[in-house]
Design brief:
Length: 50
């Protein structure tokens, strides 16, 4: 949500940097998604041990 909104605002301010901003946004969103998946995996592992 916030990553995409910030990227769209940045592209609106500097349209010539759209490619660089889009690349950075995709990388940031991928890292956030990976952290979420790892968090869920750890939570399921903890629940399974209890």
């Amino acid at each position: 949500g916030k990553v995409g909104a910030a990227a769209m605002e940045s592209i609106a301010r500097q349209p010539e940097a759209a490619g660089d901003i889009r690349t950075a946004m995709i990388l940031a969103m991928a890292l956030l998604e990976a952290l979420t998946i790892y968090g869920l995996l750890i939570a399921f592992m903890i629940i399974g041990k209890i």
